[in-house]
Design goal:
Length: about 180
Amino acid sequence: MAWEPIIIIEPEHLGLHQTVMEQLLAQHKTIATGESCTGGSLAAWITTLPGASQVFECGVVTYANRIKTKLLGVKPETLEQHGAVSYDTCAQMALGLEKLSGADCNVAITGIAGPEGGTPEKPVGTVFIGLACEGKVWVEKYQLSPAGQDREQVQALARINALQMVNAYLSGTETSSFVTYREE
């Protein structure tokens, strides 16, 4: 299935955290977040809901590369070879978070929110979102900065797309994208 990213925030997206929380509660599952470019805002969004303590294990903000390595086990050579904004870094963040948290759903986000920091290869709005569950990981690359979007919009779109992935996993509509991660 080709994954369609959300690049425009619609009113129905604003309650996605509630939908995901209800699914987590119904399935007796937990969630944890490992965030870079969103700066902990996904964790904050989830915990605005009453009852979040029943499903939310932890949120880790790993803005600095050394913290990605220290807390989430991202290999220094991965950061050197691929950079902080890459498939491999995101996969290692998600799997490291799973090991750290023990949660059922482990969401990692790394990207370039802007307005600076982009390159021709990785322009502003490039975001990788990973979901680790049961030792397997699903990582998607997004381009979330169509013309006119600012840093906060990129962060909001990253949060929404992350929860969209969790929602797809919990509802059973997306399981074929999970793989056993092997660094190349």
